[in-house]
Amino acid sequence: MPNTPRAAAAALVHRIQAATPPDRDRATDALRAFAILGVVLGHWLVTALITDSGTLHGASPLQRMPQLAPISWLFQTLAVFFLVGGEVAARSHTTARARGTTYWHWLHARLGRLFRPVAAVLVVWTVATAVMLAAGVGMDTVHTLVKLVLSPLWFLLVFAALTAAIPLTARLHPLWPCAVVVLVDVLRFGLDAPGWLGWLNLPAGWLVPYCLGAARARGAASRRSTGWALLLGGATATAGLVLFAGYPASMVGVPGAAISNLNPPTLAAVTFGLAQCGAALLLRDPLNRALRRPAAWAAVALLNLSAMTVFLWHQTAMLAVTATGWFLAGPLPGLHTLPDRPAWILARLAWLPVFAAALLLCWAAFAAYEHRRPGTRRRGGPDAGGPESAGPDAGEPDRGVREGSPARRAAVPRA
Predict the structure, then answer these.
(1) I want to staple 389 with a disulfide (CB 3.0 to 4.6 A). Which of 50, 113, 138, 160 is the partner?
(2) Which candidate, 62, 19, 26, 23, places its Cα nearest to that of 296?
(3) Alpha helices for 20-77 (secondary structure H)
(4) Do the beta carbons of residue 305 and residue 386 sit within 8 Å?
(5) What is the helix (H) or strand (E) element at residue 140, kind and residue range?
């Protein structure tokens, strides 16, 4: 076969398909990929950088065009991520216990795969911050840039805490954390309790989909009737909260808004997440059937291999394009202009392929931190094996147990 890009791609697809166990739940990987892409595209579409008296500020089209709130319904996909995360962590921990792996060994391996790639981002942006300050860049501008890059990392801390508590969260019914969210919102918005009380919803709100995923891992919440109940009930509850209880329509934070559904999570964010989880449960069987096609499965598998790299570097890619465009051509539509009209959205859509190209460069430079410990060699070259992780939900509970297995050698994510 000639050594062409098409032939190489076909060979890769064949290797991935051959290395995938026949009974693998491919929908899990698809849902994880969907959640990561939703976060990335959401940030790219609703985050703008504008200059004001020489200082860089963040802005959002949702602030000046509130009719675009439905965009946030499409790209606020964290509930799906926590759903998948709870299911995979619960199964992983159960497998580890069956093999005799200690909890601490399991947790160390799992969180190591979660946080190793974060170190590279922190080092790069620590150096970048020092360089910007030394060059005389204003503190407000530096703060805006660093916040855009690092603020998405909050959910990794929540995810790590829920993973560490898996012996408890795996047994917890989702209604308990949901009841906490209801109580906190009643106190905050109905009885004028202090605003800081809302931060109790940060773990409680994301515990709801996480516990739902853990419930599915132990055999519950698997029927289609459960999916329909979550989808219809969650959507109805969210509509009622927005229309009659004063909750914002946007499911992401909007600068200047009095209430954010996401920071910290509100009951509307939780019910919206339940609707998403219901849709995810209903889509599992169709996704598994669709992903029997080797090319479709290869795309999902490869994205999962670099899920953390894509998430951690997508804001850096956007900022790199924004800065480069400014220095080369000055203010550009959809990149540096005020997001206050539909034309900005059209211009921003045109920039998405450029952001993706910059993200591809970041992936080429930093994907190794997700796949293995820096400084180690991958045995057998790039075609011989798969990485140690496939994002924060992936990986076997005890890597040492699986060393040398077909799944370890395959270029597919493990769950």
Answers:
(1) 113
(2) 26
(3) 26-46, 61-64, 69-75
(4) yes
(5) helix 139-150
Tens digits of residue pLDDT in 301-350? 989 888 999 999 999 999 999 989 888 888 889 998 899 899 999 999 99
Which residue in this structure is represented by tokens 């599992």? Answer: 284
CA distance 415 to 410: 13
pLDDT at 85: 94
Helix then strand then coil, in percent of the chain rounded to 5, is: 70, 5, 25
Q: Containing H/E element for 50? A: strand 48-52
Structure confidence by residue, pLDDT tens digits, 90-122:
999 999 999 999 999 999 988 888 888 899 999
159: Cα separation from own chain's centroid? 10
Tokens of 409: 């050698």
Are 16 and 291 contacting, i.e. CB atoms less than 8 angstroms apart? no
Region of 350 (left: φ > 0; alpha: ψ -120 to 50; beta: rest) is alpha
Q: Virtual CA dihedral for 11, 14, 20, 25, nearest 10 degrees? A: 120
> What is the pTM for the complete model shown?
0.86
